[in-house]
Specification:
617 residues; alpha/beta; Rossmann fold; N-(1-d-carboxylethyl)-l-norvaline Dehydrogenase, domain 2; 3 domains; 5-stranded parallel beta sheet; 4-stranded mixed beta sheet; binds 2-acetamido-2-deoxy-beta-D-glucopyranose; membrane; mannitol dehydrogenase activity
Length: 617
């Protein structure tokens, strides 16, 4: 089809779209949403079938006229569906009506797959206006065993571990490594509603820098989802089930601050049948397996935490000790393994635009699709106490899974370069009024700042990483940050700074100070965070703080003074360790804060980049 005609045909759908939005918006208000909802869906289905048949069925009218007409009708249907789905789902999400719709869509996909029905395939194909090919699972999902139970399913889990297991099932016929997702906290309710309604299936869209580099895939490896606050006994039962060989988790960096005095932890110590926390579930399930003389499971942290295996192990042992159960403690210490791992794939928060994209380009009404980048990596210690997926099958690009005994150097490299750069640029970008990471890194001052940070301050004190070309790695990072299709928001990256600084930037600062060097770029990163914690951006708009630890430590109060004192902030040992002891470093941070307040971040950056850099004391 010539591209100008293609344009008209697509344009017609947009016209229909507008008509549909207006007509259905009006109808749903005058007649009530219940009576109208569904009609637009019928229109979409009918119009799609008719558009699909345009090639063969039209006589007299001409194929394009026929197609054009049905595309217009299709547009009306889609246009009607937007306001309807949005309002209906928000109004009735608990009633699960949207869920049924979604389940219907997805079960149709399953049906398509199983029956291989040619017409149905045509519907799916023709619906994709811009011909984005959607890969469906080719394996039989009901034959997947739940080798893995994952606690706290978020977008990152769905773009990383769940994707890898989908590849193993799809491309390598592995049936042992399906995943049961468990939502542990009450905030997991929305994702649980969506995933339960969609039978665990969802759309993963990988978008590269080049617009044409798009890959859409329905992930089928998540075979069930349990919302634990409603059914803790069901969650415990799957954790104790012999099929479960690995219990993995993504509980964010702040999730590892285990405090035995916390009310939920106290509850979990006394209620083995109905835990509320990840630690309670894991330890009581391990105890259940021990008492039943069953093999334990591997406990696998997938968070961006240095030595994440060691860290979760310490938490689990601390909790188990508080139970005063010697046999359990011994079982955990001698039988359970906690592999360290470095995980990497930038995965933004899902936006409504992403939902619309999937709806429009793939014909899928997914309540919570995931957008991610093409790059992925997983460096993992080969230490699994009860078997593991054949990860060696995924050792090549694009999967980049590496089983090794030496994860630490890779972890350091990733966190001190990628996550530290994220942390160093997000507050400056935010203050400057940017919304996304790619806008921020494309600002030439910021880019130069980040290059100085990585090259002059991080790299010289980075432990050697075998077989890695660091310069290439850093160039790739800048490229990944610049990906305009990811729409990774600064507000996501700015979250939980108090938990991120100690892990991503403080180690570099400590090493540099030890060498007698003042790391200026790191100092500016801290300065920009203090300025940000002050609560207003440079246009005087209020900043909504989302930071568990900072709130607990009341850092925003320290920072909100008219002249926030760097030395007082640096004295918060939980975040900065001993940094306050270094007076010249504290003065440098103080200068950054002062300059940021007086001259703004743009001028500060300019001065900083052309300034003395990391000079020796
Ligand atoms: C998938 O597996 C289930 C359970 O083994 C079986 O009942 C079903 O017929 C299979 N479906 C297809 C399409 O092969
Ligand atoms: C994007 O990819 C397409 C097809 O692979 C290629 O022809 C085009 O030159 C690329 N565009 C850019 C800006 O790299
Ligand atoms: C660390 O890097 C990943 C990309 O692998 C990013 O998505 C994530 O948000 C970062 N995590 C933190 C806590 O900064």
């Amino acid at each position: 089809m010539p591209s100008d005609i293609q344009g008209i045909i697509k344009g017609i759908t947009n016209v229909g779209n507008l008509i549909g939005q207006l007509v259905f918006g009006y109808l749903s208000d005058s007649k009530g949403r219940k009576s109208v909802y569904g009609i637009e869906l019928l229109i979409i289905i009918m119009a799609t079938i008719c558009s699909a048949m345009a090639g063969s069925a039209a006589t007299g009218v001409g194929t394009l006229g026929f197609l054009g007409f049905w595309r217009l009708v299709l547009g009306i249907g889609i246009g009607g569906d937007y306001p309807m789905s949005a309002t209906v789902s928000s109004e009735w999400s608990s009633a699960g009506r949207r869920g049924q719709m979604l389940a219907l869509t997805f079960s149709m996909q399953g049906w398509v797959m199983a029956a291989g029905n040619a017409l149905a395939r045509l519907i799916v194909d023709k619906f994709k206006c811009d011909s984005v090919h959607t890969h469906l699972p080719t394996y039989n999902r009901s034959q997947l065993k739940h080798g893995i139970v994952h606690l706290s399913v978020g977008n990152f889990h769905r773009s990383h571990l769940a994707y890898y297991m989908d590849v193993l099932a799809n491309e390598y016929d592995q049936t042992e490594w399906g995943i049961i997702g468990v939502g542990v906290r009450s905030v997991d309710k929305p994702i649980s509603t969506v995933l339960q309604a969609q039978d665990g299936m969802y759309t993963l869209i990988s978008k590269g820098c080049n617009e044409t580099d798009v890959d859409v895939r329905i992930i089928g490896s998540l075979i069930r989802y349990i919302f634990a606050p409603d059914a803790p006994e069901r969650a415990l039962a799957v954790l104790m089930h012999p099929h479960t060989k690995i219990v993995s988790m993504t509980i964010t960096v702040s999730g590892y601050d285990l405090d035995l005095k916390n009310v939920d932890i106290q509850h979990d110590l006394h209620h083995p049948q109905a835990p509320r926390t990840v630690f309670g579930f894991i330890v009581h399930a391990l105890d259940g397996r021990r008492r039943a003389n069953k093999a334990p499971f591997t406990v696998l942290s997938c968070d961006n935490v240095q030595q994440n295996g060691e860290v979760i192990k310490r938490c689990i042992l601390k909790f188990a000790k508080a139970l005063n159960n010697i046999e359990l403690l011994d079982y955990i210490q001698t039988k359970v393994t906690f592999p360290n791992s470095m995980v990497d794939r930038i995965t933004p928060v899902t936006s409504d635009t992403d939902r619309q994209y999937v709806h429009l380009h793939c014909g899928i009404a997914d309540g919570w699709p995931v957008v991610t980048e093409p790059f992925m990596q997983w460096v993992i210690e080969d230490s699994f106490c009860n078997g593991r997926p054949p990860l060696e099958l995924l050792s090549n690009a694009p999967y980049n899974v590496l089983l090794t005994e030496h994860v630490e150097a890779s972890e350091c490299m990733k966190m001190r370069l990628l996550n530290a750069s994220h942390t160093a640029m997000c507050y400056l970008g935010y203050l400057m009024g940017y919304t996304y990471i790619h806008e921020t890194i494309l600002d030439k001052h910021i880019q130069s700042y980040i290059e100085h940070l990585m090259n002059d301050e991080v790299t010289p004190v980075l432990p050697a990483v075998p077989n890695v070309d660091l310069d290439a790695y850093k160039r790739t990072l800048i490229q990944r940050f610049s990906n305009p299709h990811m729409k990774d928001t600064l507000s996501r990256v700015c979250m939980d700074g108090a938990s991120k600084f100690p892990k991503y930037l403080v180690p570099t600062i400590v090493e540099q100070l030890k060498r007698g060097v003042i790391p200026y770029m790191c100092a500016l990163a801290i300065g920009s965070w203090i300025r940000y914690l002050g609560g207003k951006d440079e246009s005087n708009r209020p900043i909504i703080l989302s930071d568990v630890l900072a709130t607990e430590l009341k850092l925003h109060e320290l920072a909100s003074e008219t002249r926030p004192s760097a030395i007082e902030m640096l004295s918060v040992r939980q975040v900065f360790g001993d940094l306050a002891n270094d007076q010249r470093f504290a003065e440098t941070v103080q200068n950054a804060v002062k300059l940021l307040y007086e001259e703004g971040s743009k001028t500060t950056l300019e001065k900083w980049i052309s300034g003395p850099r990391s000079s020796h004391k």
